[in-house]
Every structure is written in C-alpha cells, then in structure tokens.
Amino acid sequence: MCAARETAYTIRAKKKTPRGAMRCFHDFAGVRSAVFEASPDLLLILFAAAFVAGFVDSIAGGAGLITIPVMLIAGIPPLQTLGTNKLQGIFGAASATISYARGGRVAPRTQWPMALLAFAGGAAGAVLATIISGDILLAALPVLLVGIGLYFALRSGLDDTDRLQRLSVPFFTAVIVPAIGFYDGLFGPGTGSFFMIAFVTLGGLGMLKATARTKLLNLSSNLGAFVVFVAGGAILWKIGLIMGVGQFIGAQTGSRLAMRRGAKIIRPLLAISSLAMAAKVFFDEKNPLYQLIMM
Q1: In terms of C-beta density within 10 A (0-12 exposed, 13-18 middle, 19 or more buried), how is residue 104 classed?
Q2: C-alpha R_g of the chain
Q3: How much is the pTM?
C-alpha cells in the first residue's frame, strides 16, 4: 500500500475494504497517496448515502457529516475524501439552488457579490487546510452546533416572516459571508447551519428565504474549495460524479418539500441536524474535546 500523508482521518482511512482496491498517485505535496477504486455494490451504497445527504442538506445543511464518514469507512483516503466530498457537494448545492430559484425563493443574479466572496473564502480555507491541523476547529465545532440546534429548537417566533435586520447588507456581504466560506474550505461540517443562523439572526430573513440564500452561498464556497482540490489532484472523479447524481436527486426532493412546508419542516430538521452533527463530531475519538472530557 502507498504511504499516505497523515491527517486527522488517516488511521481510519488506511483500512482496506473488500469492495475496493488501492492504487498510488502523487498529491499536491508530491507525496505518494492511496486512491480508492470502488466496486459496483459500494458505489450503490455511496449513491444512497449521497441521496440522503442531499435531501437533508437542501433543508438544514450537514451533508458532509453523512458523506464524509461513509467515504472514510469505505476506505477512501482522507485527502481524497475531502476533495471528492466537495465535488459531490457541488451537485447537491446546485440542485437546491436551481429548485429554490425556479420556485421564486431566491434570485441568484442579485446575490453574485455574496457568491463571489463565498467562493474566495472557500478557496482560501482549502489552501490553509492543506497546511494546518484542524484540531482546534474539531474541538470547538460540537459546542457551536449544539448552540445552533438549541437556538432553532427553543427560540420562539422563528417562521417564514422577515424580522429585524441587525447588519447592513454591505457589512454582511464583506465580513460574514467570506468568513463562513473560509470555514467551509478549511473544515466544512455545519457550513449550511452557520449560513442559516447568520441570515436569520443578523440578516433578518425568514426561515425559507434564509434557506434558499444559504444554498447559493454554500455552492459558491464549495466551488472555491473544489478548485484548490482539483489543482492538487485530490478528486476521485468516478465516485464523486456518481455521488453527485445522488446528491442532485436528493436535494431536488428536499428543497421541494421545504418550499411546500416552509419553517414547519426547516426549523425542526435544522435543530435535529445541528444536534446530530454535534454528537457525531464530539464522539470522534480524535476530537480533542472528547479526549479531554472522556479519557
């Protein structure tokens, strides 16, 4: 087997699955890395996982917390998991954006400054992700996600009605959007939830309108990070495209449900998704917070 570069996920990713085979290539640091080639039955499993992720993400975010563990369990190397996840995530975010735009819930042409800055933030974050450890983010993420989950679960008056706008559009665009986009490229899990709470609490938008705008910005930050991973050759194209189709179909289904039900479906799913993501990240044995409290 090739010697893959060590990351937070390497130990789990080194496990070889009977449904696939490993071969070697050079990543963007020039290090020989393992690449996973999946069999048809495993591709079907990955497709199904992507469908579920696309459905959930189009409403509440959190696709990466479904797809990344599945790919790692399958034996896909960590760097290629992160890069391929961006490829298939683009399909889901694009699908949801198209659906919301066709339903008149978002006008992409008016959001291009935000989209551009989300793209730049995602690209910058992905570059930094190849250099630094994500331990600090891994420790802080469960606390942040629990806060988001409890906010949407317990806060009264959260519906599809617009409310007080706390930040001006230029400031929100110039500061908040690229910051969350940067996080998406650097780490990723929970990005949709962070965009949602920013639009609701700072932008003053109703739940459905905030969800629609979140998908376009999530698409842009995914694209920014994706460009960096493509440049480094960290994409498994066959797996990413097959999962992308699953994400696309799942996101179409989820976004149509969200437009029919509005805050009635978005709010509880967002709360459940955030709390589930927090639990998933916290109980990772490599999470510094888990090691501090449980070990």
Answers
A1: exposed
A2: 18
A3: 0.73
